[in-house]
Write a structure and sequence with these properties.
single chain, alpha/beta, Spore Coat Polysaccharide Biosynthesis Protein SpsA, Chain A, 13 strands, about 35% helix
């Protein structure tokens, strides 16, 4: 029987330098898409997939993330007393009472693999999600839920992938796969290969479902590209002993770590917003006509 995934790791210790000066004092994960920060989208996706433990890998500058998910009794009282019921519901119980939040200081910025490894003591010997909030995926069925269904078929690690332009492979982990009866089994994974060295155009995006076998690999691989502990290298080591599946998810991904991707996400979300969508659509039509 496949163990359900109940924990999610959110590596949020990065500096967000591409969005300076906005991220000088505000974590990049707190940048809003209309009126909801990226990290809340990430948490809601995890909750929809059945997660009951949220593990945030933070730095000393990320207090705003903890503040966002903690109850603000004073704000709630003000909203209640002024009759702003909709706003009250939007800030109340963002994280349900039966869900725990754990905050771990990464310390030195040693890469994604190191950030994930920081969560070992609180996750233990169970499968877990890794969610990068920079990658916003809008989908009818949340991406992590799709991956959990894929995991239930074979009980192995699952990595979300999508096709990218060949010239962009140097910005991603790139995988090679072999089709099988139970999905796309990964045969190779390379961190940011040059286009001529890339085994395919299938790129890893910011969603992982990892079996606990990954912990020992992260402990032993040492520093890789850029002097960092690369999660990609640990997954490559995992391929020597276990199956890992690449999963082509259903949905639209917005790279909110880039300015253009962030603006695209803002527009897409604004167009379907219940309060401003119609007016925003009219504004855009007038602006581009």
């Amino acid at each position: 029987m496949v163990t359900p995934v109940r924990a999610a790791v959110f590596p949020v210790a990065g500096r967000g330098t591409r969005f300076l000066p906005a991220t000088k004092a505000i974590p990049k994960e707190m940048l809003p898409i209309v009126d909801k920060p990226l990290i809340q989208f990430a948490v809601e996706e995890a909750l929809a997939a059945g997660v009951t433990k949220l593990v945030f890998i933070v730095s000393a500058t990320k207090a705003a993330i903890r503040d966002h998910f903690e109850q603000d009794a004073e704000l709630e009282e003000v909203l209640s007393n002024t009759g702003k019921k909709a706003l009250l519901q939007s800030v109340k119980n963002i994280v349900p009472e039966d869900v725990s939040c754990v905050y771990i200081d990464q310390g030195a910025p040693l890469g994604l693999g190191h950030a994930v490894l920081c969560a070992r003591s609180v996750i233990g010997n169970e499968p877990f999600f890794v969610h990068l909030a920079d990658d916003l995926i809008l989908a009818e069925t949340p991406c992590l839920s799709q991956m959990a269904e894929e995991h239930a078929r074979h009980g192995q690690s699952v990595v979300a992938v999508e096709q990218v332009e060949r010239e962009d492979t140097s910005s991603y982990g790139i995988v090679a796969v072999k089709d099988s009866d139970d999905g796309q089994r990964m045969t190779e994974i390379i961190e940011k290969p040059a286009p001529q060295d890339a085994p395919s155009d299938l790129a890893v995006v910011g969603r992982y479902l990892l079996m606990p076998d990954i912990w020992d690999n992260l402990e032993s691989i040492g520093q890789g590209a850029g002097g960092e502990i690369q999660l990609t290298d640990a997954i490559a080591m995992l391929l020597q002993d276990r199956d890992v599946y690449a999963y082509s998810f259903s949905g639209i991904r917005y790279d909110c770590g880039s300015k253009l991707g962030y603006l695209k996400a803002m527009v897409a979300s604004g167009l379907v917003d219940g309060d401003i969508g119609e007016s925003f659509r009219g504004y855009l039509a007038d602006s581009v006509s």
